């Protein structure tokens, strides 16, 4: 869909048709629900986008109470940052209806008399209320990790599966492990017959996928798969009636999620969208992008502080431990700054960067300066020098990435990175040549090589060389993990620990340090699938799933993960999270912290280096707290999708029917369980009459 066409989605607002909500209320027993997972493929250099939120002031602006409406079920649109329920219907500006009234063909008027809510899990009021909204509106659901987004998705999917007997229901997740996990999770909740369900992967032949699209009704896949099939014309787009999007905060720019929705809307607008995420976005601009790209007409947000969430979430104690750089790293940093000075001074002489201290630059500022140079080069700079300036920018970017590694992850990570530039697949001509000309660089590499290079294959040395750490945070992490296990061992029960680090080199170093304490600490690393350009070979999907299973079942009690483990992974219950590095992004922070405190009180330890990393962590804390406030304060200026498809007839009011869904214990359902559920539903529909 072209840009002009997409802009027409927000040309007019009006009043939405009245909300349908049942007055049935359920119990609030605690249940344990595992929800989806995701993988962020270890992005390195492009991490330079430093988001900074504006401080949204209450003065002079409207409050969330402005224009607040009461739903037909008697619930007011909430005005606190812990509990947000807003949408296009909250701010009517015309008398024209927001909702499309044409019901797609194939709606079953018998099945459509009811919507089914399962009681095989304890009923939680917030899930029940959100499902009621999501059935009737394109909804973005933001819940803390571990509080049942997948449950909500499974219930919504099941009802569209019942309402549209010939329709297609699609669940999109960003990675293959997530896709595989969600099939089982959704089946265990609602028991959609497995013979109607398919996992679609890129390894499946296109001809086979064409056949599956025709034969099955519920699909779990990555956005790339459905996008390929839409472009080939093998996906029956006009039959799609429900589209669920996991980790929906990714739907910015030209992400594959955005492409899928743009392509589907070319064929039909008659499908419900349910977007799921633990966070609505990094800032208000990103939130608006997600709303526009996913055609969202309503948002449901809860935090751990929401009154209806509190009974199901446990306290998470967050400890920030500030670690000084130390004399040794300070000395390495001083020498490294001298190397940076050479390149920065060249760029200053060419007039393409500001005259500021070398240590105050970052990858982001260098990228921005390079972009400014390309858009508007200095008039006194001769054109034949442009190539040299570009080379200096490229070298500066590489060096500032190393500078970040040094401060956040230590001298071992720096050595591995620089050694990769010189000898590995990271290297390229001019950068290598320029570095080797620098006397300070050669001195530094000799120093680091002596400390960290693998020993010669001499029996007298290879087995006796002690393990050397590259950052003071390593010793602190080791102490925190050992104290945790010793404390739990003196009490009762098992415990598990998860450690996050952005880079694979640090994951490897942490794993090796903790392996020294086996069997008290049974540690395993967990990384992404990508191997291209990485010094460490990635895990296959099969290896990832096996590690997760072993960790859940107690084969390991400590998992050291890159960002692949942050978003939604079903890794079981964790009592201690250690974050080895800080992130400015509130998304990354929320995802990491959501790994603990699901069944009992959890602890989160943030290890931050004194100085810049501590500032990064403080900013991420501010961003995390302010994004919900920003949504409330900007509610009237947010553009919600106004053409929300009705998906039920105008005069239709589906009633909620709570029923126990019989689900076989094994993932592969038995015919008996499937037949039993269908018989129950058929009988129950008959009792309601025509």
From TrEMBL:
SUPFAM superfamilies: P-loop containing nucleoside triphosphate hydrolases. GO terms for molecular function: 3'-5' DNA helicase activity; ATP binding; four-way junction DNA binding; four-way junction helicase activity; hydrolase activity. Pfam families: DEAD, Helicase_C. Residues 68-78 have a biased composition (Basic and acidic residues). It comes from the Eukaryota. It is found in: Nucleus. GO terms for biological process: double-strand break repair via synthesis-dependent strand annealing; interstrand cross-link repair. CDD domains: DEXDc_FANCM (cd18033), FANCM_ID (cd12091), SF2_C_FANCM_Hef (cd18801). Residues 672-690 have a biased composition (Polar residues). Residues 1-30, 55-79, 671-690 are annotated as: Disordered. Keywords: ATP-binding, Helicase, Hydrolase, Nucleotide-binding, Nucleus. GO terms for cellular component: nucleus. The keyword Nucleus applies. Residues 476-646 form the Helicase C-terminal domain. Its main location: nucleus. Residues 130-298 form the Helicase ATP-binding domain. Belongs to the DEAD box helicase family. DEAH subfamily. FANCM sub-subfamily. This is Fanconi anemia group M protein.
């Amino acid at each position: 869909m072209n840009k002009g066409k997409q802009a027409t989605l927000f040309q007019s607002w009006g009043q939405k048709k009245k909300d349908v909500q049942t007055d049935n209320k359920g119990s609030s027993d605690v249940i344990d629900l595992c929800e989806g997972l995701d993988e962020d493929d270890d992005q390195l250099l492009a991490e330079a986008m430093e988001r900074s939120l504006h401080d949204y002031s209450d003065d002079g602006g409207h409050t969330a109470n402005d224009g607040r409406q009461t739903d037909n079920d008697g619930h007011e649109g909430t005005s606190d940052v812990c509990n947000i329920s807003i949408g296009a219907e909250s701010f009517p500006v015309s008398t024209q209806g927001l909702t499309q009234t044409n019901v797609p063909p194939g709606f079953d008027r018998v099945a459509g008399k009811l919507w089914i809510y399962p009681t095989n899990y304890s009923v939680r009021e917030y899930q029940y209320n959100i499902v009621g909204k999501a059935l009737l509106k394109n909804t973005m659901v933001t819940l803390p990790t571990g509080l049942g987004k997948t449950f909500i998705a499974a219930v919504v999917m099941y009802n569209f599966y019942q309402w549209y007997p010939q329709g297609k229901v699609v669940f999109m997740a960003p990675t293959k492990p997530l896709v595989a996990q969600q099939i089982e999770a959704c089946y265990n909740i609602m028991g959609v017959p497995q013979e109607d369900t398919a996992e679609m992967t890129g390894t499946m032949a296109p001809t086979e996928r064409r056949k599956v699209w025709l034969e099955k009704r519920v699909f779990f896949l990555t956005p790339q798969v459905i996008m390929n099939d839409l472009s080939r014309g093998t996906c029956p787009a006009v039959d799609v009636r429900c589209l669920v999007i996991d980790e929906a905060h990714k739907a910015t720019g030209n992400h594959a999620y955005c492409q899928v929705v743009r392509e589907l809307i070319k064929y039909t607008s008659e499908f419900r969208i349910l977007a799921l995420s633990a966070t609505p976005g990094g800032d208000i601009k990103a939130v608006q992008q997600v709303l526009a790209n996913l055609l969202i007409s309503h948002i449901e947000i809860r935090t751990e502080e929401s009154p209806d969430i509190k009974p199901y979430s446990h306290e998470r104690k967050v400890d920030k431990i500030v670690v000084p750089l130390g004399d040794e790293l300070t000395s390495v940093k001083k020498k490294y700054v001298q190397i940076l000075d050479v390149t920065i001074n060249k760029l200053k002489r060419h007039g393409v960067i500001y005259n500021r201290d070398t240590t105050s630059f970052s990858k982001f500022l260098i990228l921005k300066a390079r972009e400014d140079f390309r858009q508007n080069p200095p008039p006194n700079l001769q054109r034949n020098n442009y190539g040299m300036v570009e080379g200096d920018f490229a070298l500066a970017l590489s060096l500032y990435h190393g500078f970040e590694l040094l401060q956040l992850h230590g001298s071992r990570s720096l050595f591995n990175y620089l050694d990769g530039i010189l000898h590995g697949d990271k290297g390229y001509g001019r950068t290598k040549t320029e570095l080797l000309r620098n006397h300070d660089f050669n001195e530094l590499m000799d120093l680091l090589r002596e400390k960290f290079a693998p020993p010669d294959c001499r029996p007298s040395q290879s087995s006796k060389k002690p393990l050397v750490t590259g950052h003071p945070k390593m010793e602190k992490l080791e102490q925190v993990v050992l104290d945790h296990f010793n404390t739990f061992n003196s009490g009762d029960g098992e415990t598990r620990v998860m450690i996050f680090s952005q880079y694979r080199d640090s994951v490897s170093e942490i794993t090796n340090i903790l392996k020294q304490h086996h069997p008290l600490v049974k540690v395993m690393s967990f990384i992404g699938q990508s191997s291209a350009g990485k010094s460490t070979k990635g895990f296959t999907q099969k290896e990832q799933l096996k590690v997760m299973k072993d960790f859940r079942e107690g084969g390991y009690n400590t998992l050291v993960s890159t960002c692949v483990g942050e978003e939604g992974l079903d890794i079981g219950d964790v009592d201690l999270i250690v974050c080895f590095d800080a992130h400015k992004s509130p998304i990354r922070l929320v995802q990491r912290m959501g790994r603990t405190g699901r069944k009992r009180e959890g602890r989160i330890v943030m290890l931050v280096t004194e100085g810049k990393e501590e500032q990064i962590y403080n900013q991420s804390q501010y961003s995390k707290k302010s994004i919900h406030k920003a949504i409330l304060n900007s509610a009237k200026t947010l553009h919600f999708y106004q053409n929300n498809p009705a998906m039920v007839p105008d005069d239709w009011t589906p009633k909620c029917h709570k029923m126990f869904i019989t689900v076989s214990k094994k993932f592969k359902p038995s015919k008996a369980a499937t037949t039993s559920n269908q018989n129950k539903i058929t009988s129950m529909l008959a009792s309601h009459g025509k």
